[in-house]
Amino acid sequence: MSTQELYFQPNSSLTALGFSQHQPSEQLKPWVQQYWTIQVPEQADTTQPYPQYPDGGSNLTFEFLPNQLPSAYIHYSQQLNQSSFLPGQHLLSVRFLATGTFQLLGISPAELTKAALDIRLCNLVGLDWLLDQLTNSPTLPARLTAIECWLLHLAEQRVSNTTLVQKSLTLLKQPATDLQHLYSQLPKSRRQFERLFKLETGLSPAQLQLLFKVKLARFLISNNPIIELVSVAQQAGFYDQAHMHQHFVRITGQTPGQYKKRKMSQLSNSA
């Protein structure tokens, strides 16, 4: 399992809804975490909600409807959300990393005040071509290829080099990173950097670092449900177990113990 899989955690219920995940090309990995798709059978039970855990990223989601161009929306939220799906619904989504929306689409997460933004209003280069390709491509591989071609074209147009914010993400994902040390190494003032960071990610460095720590804690528990929570807190970079408990509850809506118990139950049921 990769920590990149922890936005949606695959299980038998999601699989029954036609859920699948796909990795981006190497060229797009600095900005794209993954692609995921859902194609819900008409007779499927869609009463169960599915948690979407915040991790600093955003989704560009295409919804396919019969005999018309797909709709396309950017979703950005750093709160725990519960997603539900409808019988017959068909979605294909690009899951961006923290800077992806800004660097590839030119859209600042800090400006996304609505739950969903219709990107057809953003005058993105090549979007009309992409929507036509998605409409006329009946297979998932063909649609993924079209999306990749479009994103690669945007990358060539928009991204000239790796930004200071993007470089800092690598450090923020390391549990032992001290923010004060990071600030002292910057070629900009702390205020300038934080303003730029907020523009590209929609969050402060401290906020995103906490999301990364909770995400790592969830990965450690999911990967080894019998692990001691004290060890999880230490490995994920929290001061202590109480510090982890506080932020885990705030971000996931459950305690680390409850999350661990659920993962142990899933492990037992799959045995």
From TrEMBL:
Organism domain of life: Bacteria
Pfam family, one: HTH_18
Name this protein carries in UniProt: AraC-like DNA-binding protein
Domain spans labelled HTH araC/xylS-type: 162-262
Keywords: DNA-binding, Transcription, Transcription regulation
SMART domains for this protein: HTH_ARAC
Keyword DNA-binding annotated: yes
Keyword Transcription regulation: yes
InterPro entries per record: AraC_XylS_family_regulators, DUF6597, Homeodomain-like_sf, HTH_AraC
Top-level taxonomy: Bacteria, Pseudomonadati, Pseudomonadota, Gammaproteobacteria, Chromatiales
Signal peptide limits: none
